[in-house]
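Fold this sequence, please.
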Amino acid sequence: MERVFVYGTLKRGERNHPLVERRVVKVLPGYVEGYRLFHLAEGPGRPYPYPGMVPGEGRVYGEVLFLPEEALSLLDELEEEGVEYRRVKVLVETEEGPLSAWAYVYLGDLEGAVWLPQGVWPA
């Protein structure tokens, strides 16, 4: 079983959650420290708005999805792992205590991006 911290379109109720919905075994709300969250607007190469989490001073809120290991390749493809995002291990604070999970850190240009100081997307 893998744990993936999601903070944008993969959260419950968001546009990409149906891609993993049937595979999700458990969901825990949580947050990570040491990251900043940005809103990336729709535009060239970006068919719809979504967020990007980058290292920095702050806190980002989201959900930990418990998924079978084979779901990671689907998420890597969606997130363009290694191109637009990098999958890294993060420490997530949850109601069940801290736990290690994968998260997708944004690698792209932040020009025109809007910082979300509350660490929640959508703002």
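The mean pLDDT is 96. The domain at 2-115 is CATH 3.10.490.10 (Hypothetical upf0131 protein ytfp).
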